[in-house]
Predict the structure.
Amino acid sequence: SFDANAVPQAPEDPLFGLMAAFRRDTDPNKVDLGIGAYRDDNAKPWVLPVVKKADEKLRNDPNLNHEYLPIAGLADFTSASQKLVLGGDSPAIKEKRVTSLQTISGTGAVHLGALFLAKFYKPNSNRTAYFSDPTWPNHFQIFNNVGIPQKTYPYFSKQTKGLDFDGYIKSLESADEGSIIVIHACAHNPTGVDPTQEQWKKIAEVIRAKKHFPFFDTAYQGFASGDLARDGWAIRYFVEQGFELCIAQSYAKNFGLYGERAGCFHFITSPSTDAQSVVSRVASQLAILQRSEISNPPAYGARIASIVLNDAELFAEWEANLRTMSGRIIEMRKVLRAKLEEAGTPGTWNHITDQIGMFSFTGLTEQQVLKLREDSHVYMTKNGRISMAGLNTHNVDYFAKAVDQAVR
Ligand code: PLP
């Protein structure tokens, strides 16, 4: 019989634990560099102006109701999501080689993809999912839940605080043929380090040679550089090269719709005479998985995003909002680096501006991170990752001085 008393205590989620510790801290100078959510220059959450507009439009729509969405979600949203991630003129869309389902944000998309692969990707033979070392920790938990064995590929070089490209490539080469390679499409979390376009081409070459299956996780398109095409380049390149692949797409960061859980899962098959039939069979199976997991996705966030994505004027306004967020973060990177260099803080700090997106892997040790928390009330994860969005013109000087003290 079930003995609930035998259930062991699970560890607290480190990130959510950190948030709770920050809230308890009463120091007026406290700085939150933990959670990956955008903050404005006053450290406040920012509702994108374009989201406010779409929200109003939605609320004033006399036809609005609260019926269920279809199993695959809002069709206007999923088709606009395809165009966003693949590019409007993608041959994969024209040739109907894509099937897409609306999901519970990026997490739900990763999960749906993992579940699908668990059931249909070489179910009776060895298969392993490879993650970058380090990666978004939830990748491990999600793939573990569906029973897919896991390994990591080298990614971050402690020496250069950039990409360990040789380690990455060697690992792809030595992995068993047909492994699942989980890839951050841009603005790698937690390191902020992305391959260059030349490096992406080599990565694609090895993935092809080894018949690996690429699984893209894109949680920061447009948020990283402010340019949707630039942040989408790697995925579009792989699709152009004819790969069969899948994509987990999140709208949390680029629309600031964190709590609305708007996301999309895409499966793209390679060009072939059979492609449409493959896609329709895959779609039928995904629908069954979705039905058993969530029945149908939540409507609100997808409706907001859909209004923006399907209106040229609002879309342009969204792009401007993206530039506001990415621009502020890029500016903070410059200021932080300059302050550390001016102070002669021991170490090199070029990686702060070389890295991109929400996060920077500072290279601070766990000991230094704890010292920063105790002495200066600065909260960041133990691996030395800071959320750049937590810095602003009011606290960047304080933070730079705190780092200077912690590393001397
Ligand atoms: N994947 C990566 C790499 C992320 O950084 C995140 C968010 O932090 C996600 C997926 C999914 O986030 P959400 O479920 O909020 O869309």
The chain has 17 helices and eleven strands. The pocket of pyridoxal-5'-phosphate is lined by residues 36, 105-107, 136, 184, 189, 217, 219, 250, 252, 263 (CB under 6 Å). The first strand starts at residue 31 and ends at 32. The mean pLDDT is 96.
